Structures are given as C-alpha cells and as structure tokens.
Amino acid sequence: MVERWLQFTNLPLLEQARARVTRTLTDGVQLNMSTEEATKILKRHVNTKINLVTMFVDINDSTQMSLSLSQNEFALVLQTFAQEIGIAVLGYGGHVFKYEGDALIILFLADFDEIKACKNALNCSTAILRILKEVINPIFRTNGLPKITVRIGMAYGNILVILYGKSLENAHVDIIGSSISLAAKITSIAKANQILIGEYIYSILLSSTKNKDLVNKSKFTEVILDVAKWKYLSHFDSRSMYHVYEYLPTDLLIK
Predict the structure, then answer these.
(1) What 8-state DSSP symbol labels residue 239?
(2) Across-strand partners of 245?
(3) What whole-number distance in Å separates Cα of residue 225 and Cα of residue 86?
C-alpha cells in the first residue's frame, strides 16, 4: 500500500518526502488520504474490547495560522501535513483513525504485543518531529509558509468498538474508552513539539529488566501537573493523580 504512494522510490526516504512535499505545494495533494484501513480493522471487532495505543497529533497555534493565511494556503498546509504524517504512521504499523482539521487521531493495535505497539507509537512520534524539522518546515519557509509545530499525546488502554446502526457495511464505526479521552487531555497540555505519554505506556515499557534500561536511556521525565486543573485518577492508585511523562527522543529508535 505504501509503495503506491511513494513517487520517488529511487531516493532515500527523507529525499522522497522532500520531493513529494515540493510537488504537493505546486501540484496539489499527491495521494488519497483515507481512514478506510482503520475502519476495516475496527469492524472486525464491533461490540468487543481491544487494546491499543491512541495517539493525537495536533498542530500548535493553528487558529492563529488560519487567520494569517488565505483559506487555500491554510488548506494546503493542513493537507501537506496530513499526507506526510499519514505515510509515517503506516511505516510504524499504525492507522489513521480520523483526520480532524488540524489534528490526526492514530491507532496502534496492541492485542498481540503491547510492548511493540508502545515502541512503534514512540518511534512514530520521533519520526514526525524529524519530518517537520528536516522536510516540511524548510520547504514551507522557502515557499513563504509558516513553520509548523505540533503537540503529541498518547495513552494505552482497552477500548470498545461500537457501531452507529445495524448494518456493518454502511453504519459508522467508532471507539469509546477512557484511554481515548486521556490521550486527548494529555495532548492538550503538551507544549510545542513535546511528546507526552500516559502512565500505562510508561509502565508497559518498565515491564522487564531490558525495558527498564531502555526507559532510563530514552529520557522519560514525569510532568508536574497542576492539581487544580488535572483531576484524573491513576489506574494504579485511585488515591493519586494519573501520571503523565514527557518522552525526550534521541536520534536512535527504540528497539
């Protein structure tokens, strides 16, 4: 599926992305962005619970950006952003569940290997920041478009797949669960180009001695939360707040 989207397969991945972004700004979107694959997967699990990592990627200060650009320019910024992030997500085994204007909701299925799902989500978030820094923003600057920064938040948990209707083929499929709401709340407190993760992801990565070393080397820092605004309870201790950690990516991917 990815191969159909990449028009410059004789080039390294970042060079492919640069060529694709440049062409997008002159000729329009280079691929059909779709949530069809995520929908197909979810429809196999209607009325059942599945485990996954939910990740939100939200363009920072998009309202101000929309006021400073024409509608066509702003649309092109959003389309280019969504195109490149969507390709990156596929490369890390994720699926775009929703395109919501200036944000993407991304799912990493974790029923068979929760550790791998968490690592894939973190590696994908690192790749997104690199794509912005090395591909999208330099080309935007050359073309007189504003720099993009993003807020990234993610949480792990089981969700319930529901159908709005009787027909599996035609009805809208959706997901509900506290982890989705928490991922959104976590994203809302992130700063520009900051990656925040929920306590379950941190706990999963600490689940073995090997991963304890991984966590120490990968620089996770607990976020000091405003108790007046953050009122969500921990999954592990109902007497304490839900913990949030900042992930400080290095140049190396998590193995």
Answers:
(1) T
(2) 197, 222
(3) 31
pLDDT at 143 over 50: yes
User: Can you tell me the mean pLDDT for 188-202?
Assistant: 96
Q: Which domains does the chain have, with CATH numbers?
A: 35-247 (3.30.70.1230)
Asked if residues 54 and 103 have their Cβ atoms less than 8 Å apart, the reply is no
Half-sphere exposure of 255 (CA within 13 A, CB side): 4
Give me the mean pLDDT over the 28-34 stretch.
86
Contacts 24+ apart (CB under 8 A), 120-123: 120/53, 120/92, 120/93, 120/94, 121/53, 121/55, 121/92, 121/94, 121/154, 121/201, 122/195, 122/197, 122/201, 122/218, 122/247, 122/249, 122/254, 123/92, 123/253, 123/254
Question: In this predicted model, what pLDDT tens digit does every residue of 116-139 receive, in sequence order?
Answer: 999 999 999 999 999 999 999 999
Segment 153-176, tens digit of pLDDT: 999 999 999 999 988 988 999 999
Q: Measured in whole angstroms, how far is the alpha carbon of residue 147 from the centre of its chain?
A: 19
User: What pLDDT sits at residue 32?
Assistant: 84
The neighbouring-strand residues paired with 58 are 103, 151
| Residue 175: partners with Cβ closer than 8 Å, 6 or more residues away | 42, 97, 107, 159, 160, 161, 162
The amino acid sitting at 120 is N
pLDDT attached to residue 206: 84
